[in-house]
Design a protein that fits this description.
The protein is mainly alpha-helical. It has 15 helices and 2 strands. The longest helix has about 35 residues.
Length: about 375
C-alpha cells in the first residue's frame, strides 16, 4: 500500500507540474501578443497618456536662451487644447460673464484695448493696465515673477490669482471646480490631458499656462531686419524705410533714446524687446508701490515689470496705469518728462542726463521704428481664437 501511495503521489505531482507549465506558456504568449500589438514591440502606453507638443520657435529666437518649461507641467496637445478652452471660459467668474480673454483679447495681442485698467465683474475696475500676453515662455528662471508688480512666481500662479480677486473674476476656486466638474465637456478633457477626470484648481491653471506658453510672437517687419543682421536672411531683404532705420539708430544710441538697456536689441542678442526686470522709470517723484507691495522693500517702490516693445500698435494705452494714450506721448515722456527722483532707475540717472530732449524729427523717427515690431500674423492666428 505504501508503494501504491507513492506512485499516486508521483503521478499527482507530474500532473500539477504539467498544468503549471501550461499556465506559464499561456501567460508568456499573452504578454508577447500585447507587445506585438505596439509598433516597436514595447509595452503599450496607458490609454490616458497625452501627446507631447513641441513649440515651433521663430528662427532668430535661436540666439537666446530656450523657453522655460516646467518639468511638472510639460506641453501636450491635449493640455493646450484644454487650456485654450479654459482661457475663454466664463464659468471661471462669479457672474459667468468674465473670462481670461475678456481682458486679454487675441486680436489686440492679448491686451485690453483702449482701457487704462480693465473692468471685472459687476463693472468693478482694477488698478493696473492689462499686460499683453506673448513670449511668456522665455521669462528666465532667475527672475520668474509675472505681471506688473511681480506677485506671481509662475504662469500657473498668474492664472490662479484673477479668479479670486474681487474686482476681477470674484469667484472661489471650489465654485469654479464645481461648475467645471458638472459640465459634461470638461471631465473627459481633463482625463485626456492629465489622466484624471477629477478637476481641481492646480490642473485648471496648469492647462491655462500650457496654452499661454504657445503664444509666440516673432513675425514682424523688424524681425525680418533682425534676421538680416544675423545673416539668417539675405542682405537687403528687409523693407524698413529710411525713417524707421533712423528710429532704430536713435533707439540704440546712448546719447539719444538709450532704450536698449531695458528693452534689448539684436546686438545684445535679445529679440524679445525686454530685459524682464522690474524698474522705476521715473514716472513720478512719489511713485506707486509697484514691486514693493510684494517684497515689502522701500527700495522697490515704483518698480514695475519692463514690458516688451512688441505689438505696441495694439496695446494702448501705455504704462502700468495706462496714463499715456499714444506712442507719441510715451516718447515725449522719455524725452522731457522723466522724474529724476531718489528711486529712479540708475540706468537712467547714470547717463549723466535723464531727459535727452529729442528733436521733433527724432521723436517721429523713434515712433516709426517702434511700430515696425508689430506682428500681424500673431494677432490674426486662428489657433489663438475660440
Amino acid at each position: 500500500m505504501d508503494r501504491r501511495f507513492l506512485q499516486l503521489n508521483k503521478l499527482f505531482s507530474i500532473r500539477v507540474s504539467a498544468i503549471f507549465f501550461a499556465l506559464i506558456v499561456l501567460l508568456s504568449i499573452a504578454c508577447r501578443k500585447d507587445k506585438e500589438d505596439t509598433p516597436d514591440g514595447t509595452d503599450p502606453p496607458p490609454s490616458h497618456q497625452p501627446t507631447p507638443y513641441i513649440l515651433e520657435l521663430p528662427e532668430h529666437f535661436s540666439i537666446i536662451f530656450g523657453p522655460t518649461l516646467p518639468e511638472d507641467n510639460p506641453l501636450t496637445v491635449e493640455g493646450i487644447a484644454l487650456g485654450k478652452k479654459l482661457f475663454f471660459e466664463k464659468k471661471l467668474s462669479a457672474t459667468n460673464q468674465i473670462s481670461c480673454a475678456s481682458c486679454h483679447r487675441p486680436e489686440s495681442a492679448f491686451n485690453d484695448p483702449g482701457k487704462a485698467v480693465s473692468t471685472g465683474i459687476n463693472g468693478l475696475t482694477g488698478t493696473r493696465n492689462a499686460m499683453p500676453l506673448f513670449n511668456l515662455a522665455w521669462t528666465p528662471t532667475f527672475d520668474s515673477k509675472f505681471n506688473w508688480r511681480g506677485s506671481a512666481e509662475s504662469l500657473e500662479d498668474q492664472a490662479l490669482e484673477p479668479v479670486t480677486i474681487h474686482f476681477e473674476m470674484g469667484e472661489t476656486w471650489p465654485n469654479v471646480v464645481n461648475k467645471l466638474q458638472n459640465d459634461a465637456m470638461y471631465p473627459p478633457m481633463f482625463e485626456a490631458a492629465f489622466g484624471t477626470n477629477v478637476i481641481d484648481s492646480t490642473l485648471v491653471v496648469k492647462a491655462i499656462a500650457q496654452f499661454e506658453r504657445t503664444l509666440i510672437s516673432g513675425d514682424s517687419r523688424m524681425d525680418e531686419y533682425v534676421k538680416e543682421l544675423l545673416n539668417l536672411n539675405p542682405p537687403g531683404s528687409s523693407d524698413l524705410t529710411a525713417q524707421e532705420l533712423r528710429g532704430f539708430n536713435i533707439y540704440v544710441s546712448t546719447a539719444k533714446g538709450d532704450c536698449f538697456h531695458c528693452h534689448g536689441n539684436v546686438n545684445l542678442r535679445n529679440p524679445l524687446w525686454t530685459d524682464f526686470e522690474f524698474r522705476n522709470n521715473g514716472l513720478d517723484l512719489n511713485p506707486d508701490s509697484g514691486l514693493a507691495l510684494v517684497t515689502k522693500k522701500a527700495s522697490d517702490v515704483g518698480k514695475f515689470k519692463t514690458p516688451s516693445l512688441r505689438n505696441l500698435v495694439y496695446t494702448a494705452p501705455y504704462m502700468h496705469d495706462g496714463r499715456f494714450q499714444t506712442l507719441e506721448e510715451v516718447v515725449e515722456f522719455y524725452s522731457t518728462g522723466v522724474q529724476d527722483g531718489p528711486l529712479t532707475d540708475p540706468l537712467m540717472a547714470d547717463r549723466g542726463f535723464v531727459n535727452p530732449n529729442l528733436t521733433t524729427q527724432e521723436k517721429a523717427d523713434l515712433v516709426a521704428f517702434l511700430k515696425t515690431i508689430t506682428d500681424t500674423v500673431f494677432v490674426n492666428n486662428p489657433d489663438f481664437r475660440p
